Amino acid sequence: MKSVKIKSPATIANLVCGFDVLGMALNDPQDVMQVTLSKEPGIRIQHNDIYNLPVIPEKNVAGVALLELIKELDNENGFDIVIEKHIKPGSGLGSSAASAAGVVVAANHLLGNIFSKEDLVRFAMAGEKLASGVKHADNISPCIYGGVTLIRSIFPLDIIPLPAPPMYVAVVHPQIEVKTSDAREILRKEVLLKDAIKQWGNIAGLVAGFMQNDYGLISRSLEDVIIEPVRSILIPGFDEVKKKCAAAGALGGGIAGSGPSIFMLCKEENVAKDVELIMKGIYDSIGLAYHSYVTTINNKGITIV
Amino acid sequence: MKSVKIKSPATIANLVCGFDVLGMALNDPQDVMQVTLSKEPGIRIQHNDIYNLPVIPEKNVAGVALLELIKELDNENGFDIVIEKHIKPGSGLGSSAASAAGVVVAANHLLGNIFSKEDLVRFAMAGEKLASGVKHADNISPCIYGGVTLIRSIFPLDIIPLPAPPMYVAVVHPQIEVKTSDAREILRKEVLLKDAIKQWGNIAGLVAGFMQNDYGLISRSLEDVIIEPVRSILIPGFDEVKKKCAAAGALGGGIAGSGPSIFMLCKEENVAKDVELIMKGIYDSIGLAYHSYVTTINNKGITIV
Question: Residue A217 and residue A208: Cα distance in Å, rounded?
């Protein structure tokens, strides 16, 4: 039977001032998935990794995403899925989105690309709903489209891929657990109008900065006065990381997704490497285990291997 | 003595989802000002119009703006100002900004352009403070820079001129009074986070739409879920104008500044003319006096005549 192997990238949602609307794809890490079209109806999932994720389709984010796609097919095909997860679940780097988006992109390829990218985002959102309780697309969209994407609206879905200049991304993942549901619950339902104005001034500046390759403007706009002050208290060392990385020349950054990973955007590779060293130093001195690395923006999204 | 005549355009601040941060300059109407450098220190203001505005410099928006500029001079020059106002005060179309920005641009020209545009915005904001009690720059910036400008931040001042495709602007000014201070007071100090998210998704979409000449995206993004629902109750006929103009093909629009003028952006001139007719029809049937017209985006800002 027809089979395809894909790579599905890590993504950063809630990109600083772009809470719930702005996401970015990374070149590392990437999940690997092998999806095979089968005459036997149904979905069979196998996980070739250490994470012990559920393999019952209805309880697996890739499974539910694929079930959404299958609903719109008029045939009885089934799928065999082998997932090799490299994006650690719970890292804040879009692990569930990579599974959900990866499987529907792979299935669509096997079916002769009958669905649009927007359709695929719609299917994959079912996986996000399973993972976090909320349909959101700011991991899935950059995962599928690559680069930076704006999700102006979910209902109706309105995805705008944004050009952005090359950037290096230093990431540190302190090994603590932050549940997406907890990270959502601590947010206030109301915010000050004056803070909201600051935030929409910043996201407007960030979009303009990305589109004009204006690193200075990008840097000035990378400020989140609403979500970060609340959520960062869940992440030990956050303020120190941010302050020291900015002093070392990072453009700016913040919490990846709902955490606990922290990312910093940099114009130059050597700055990103310095920034990673700073991150290491801080978590070494706190005595908290962590994983850190430097990567770049992924402009391709999910790729067929 | 040296003298200069300038034209200073009307502007629309609070551009739909860009409350407090996004403004646009119009080709009509424009104030005309004659500014003359004098050896006699001090400022003398004459108003050649029907609006009976104060001529004491400390009480005149152009006067206080120019006083700010003079503070930074190391000579004893004075200025004679003749203002011919065509932008009706209280229309929501940046009448005070046109005076404040116009006079400092003219003075700077007479002084050999010793100040930057950003300096001029800073001086002119003193006029806005006098007029509305609050320093804001979303009328002054497009007035000076032309086109559409983003004011990402006031302290420190960060102005980003944004490219935008050609558009026609239909404007109706119902002849009622909406005080800027009242329009500010009725706003809630807190807003729902979910509305704020919608708003920053929209402004991000609007900026991307402007920069990519994507009229469809511009149209979808021209939505204000925070300010307009509150302020529009001060403007009779607002909902009907908006609904019928959208149905006639306008891209979208809203309240100009803090009102009471309403504007609608259109891609085609004939649509803008239809939209103006709709506006006329609505205020004729309400029985409220109004002034309406169609103009275009002014990309030059203040010009030397």
Answer: 8
